[in-house]
Automatic annotation (TrEMBL):
<dbReference type="InterPro" id="IPR003782">
    <property type="entry name" value="SCO1/SenC"/>
</dbReference>
<dbReference type="GO" id="GO:0005743">
    <property type="term" value="C:mitochondrial inner membrane"/>
</dbReference>
<dbReference type="InterPro" id="IPR036249">
    <property type="entry name" value="Thioredoxin-like_sf"/>
</dbReference>
<comment type="similarity">
    <text>Belongs to the SCO1/2 family.</text>
</comment>
<keyword id="KW-0812">Transmembrane</keyword>
<protein>
    <submittedName>
        <fullName>Cytochrome C oxidase assembly protein</fullName>
    </submittedName>
</protein>
<feature type="domain" description="Thioredoxin">
    <location>
        <begin position="87"/>
        <end position="258"/>
    </location>
</feature>
<feature type="transmembrane region" description="Helical">
    <location>
        <begin position="49"/>
        <end position="69"/>
    </location>
</feature>
<keyword id="KW-1133">Transmembrane helix</keyword>
<keyword id="KW-0479">Metal-binding</keyword>
<dbReference type="GO" id="GO:0045454">
    <property type="term" value="P:cell redox homeostasis"/>
</dbReference>
<keyword id="KW-0472">Membrane</keyword>
<dbReference type="GO" id="GO:0033617">
    <property type="term" value="P:mitochondrial respiratory chain complex IV assembly"/>
</dbReference>
<keyword id="KW-1015">Disulfide bond</keyword>
<feature type="binding site">
    <location>
        <position position="133"/>
    </location>
    <ligand>
        <name>Cu cation</name>
    </ligand>
</feature>
<keyword id="KW-0999">Mitochondrion inner membrane</keyword>
<dbReference type="InterPro" id="IPR017276">
    <property type="entry name" value="Synth_of_cyt-c-oxidase_Sco1/2"/>
</dbReference>
Length: 275
């Protein structure tokens, strides 16, 4: 049956007229032609844009979660450091005034670094110490070498517990056998006693001895780690090896945040983490 047979004769002219009046070349496109492809391409673009937005959203969320977790972990370490600032009570560290091996004044203010990067590590000993002090200073030298690989700036300090014999000149000569960055400090008996008191360092010399006599000084054996703001953050005992000592200082360096930066973050949208 033809098309003309399926359409009543009296309606054929009307249908033909309608087709001829409304038809344009672009209205009839073969299946699979450009018009069909255009529609599918348009739909595909929308789908691609939607997936792109979803992936960007997921990526941004993952990055945000990573930095949030990292900041939270750093704050946890910082709180641990703050808790370590006191071994019992009162706090370790405080005002002192001594002189270095060149005769220059050195105080607690010299522990501070205006760039907020340099940590200090303090050891109390004496130049006539036969074994313990040399061993600990050698260990300190190894720790400093390892920390330098991590670009952790350190100011190593040796403070004498025997000011009667340890003059600036004597300490300077003594420290030549150890790490070149070591800063040697001494002072009057009262000045040294005050400094030891600030750091809760015990030391004792035999009674009624003269500087020209051979005697030993009993003293505490610890390294005191101070942050760039001059605050005590941790202690390293004699039983700790080089690796353990380095790890403690790395931990302190990772957790450190200058007070000015901390205040800014407290005022930011992450402020609730710092409370």
């Amino acid at each position: 049956m033809s098309w003309s047979d399926s359409v009543p004769v009296h309606m054929a002219p009307i249908l033909l007229a309608d087709i001829s009046l409304n038809w344009t070349p672009g209205d009839i496109v073969a299946i699979g032609g450009s018009d069909t492809n255009h529609k599918y391409a348009k739909g595909g673009s929308i789908e691609f844009a939607a997936w792109k937005a979803i992936l960007l959203f997921i990526g941004a969320g993952a990055i945000g979660t990573y930095f949030f977790s990292k900041e939270k972990e750093r704050l946890r370490k910082q709180r641990e450091m703050e808790q370590n600032r006191s071994v019992g009570k009162p706090l370790i560290g405080g005002p002192f005034s001594l002189v270095d091996t060149e005769g220059n004044k050195f105080t607690h203010e010299n522990l501070k670094d205006e760039n907020g990067k340099r940590f200090s590590i303090i050891y109390f000993g004496f130049s006539h110490c036969p074994d313990v002090c040399p061993e600990e200073l050698d260990k300190l030298g190894e720790m400093l070498t390892e920390l330098k690989k991590d670009n952790i700036e350190m100011q190593p300090i040796f403070i004498t517990c025997d000011p009667a014999r340890d003059t600036p000149e004597v300490i300077k000569t003594y420290l030549e056998d150890f790490h070149p960055d070591l800063v040697g400090l001494t002072g009057s008996y009262d000045q040294v006693k005050n400094c030891c008191k600030q750091y809760r360092v015990y030391f004792s010399t035999p009674p009624n001895v003269r500087p020209d006599q051979d005697y030993l000084v009993d003293h505490s054996i610890f390294f005191y780690v101070m942050d760039p703001e001059g605050n005590f953050v941790d202690v390293i005992g004699r039983e700790a090896n080089v690796k353990e000592g380095v790890e403690k200082i790395r931990k302190a360096a990772d957790a450190f945040m200058p007070e000015s930066e901390r205040q800014k973050k407290q005022q930011s949208w992450l402020g609730f983490l710092y409370k």
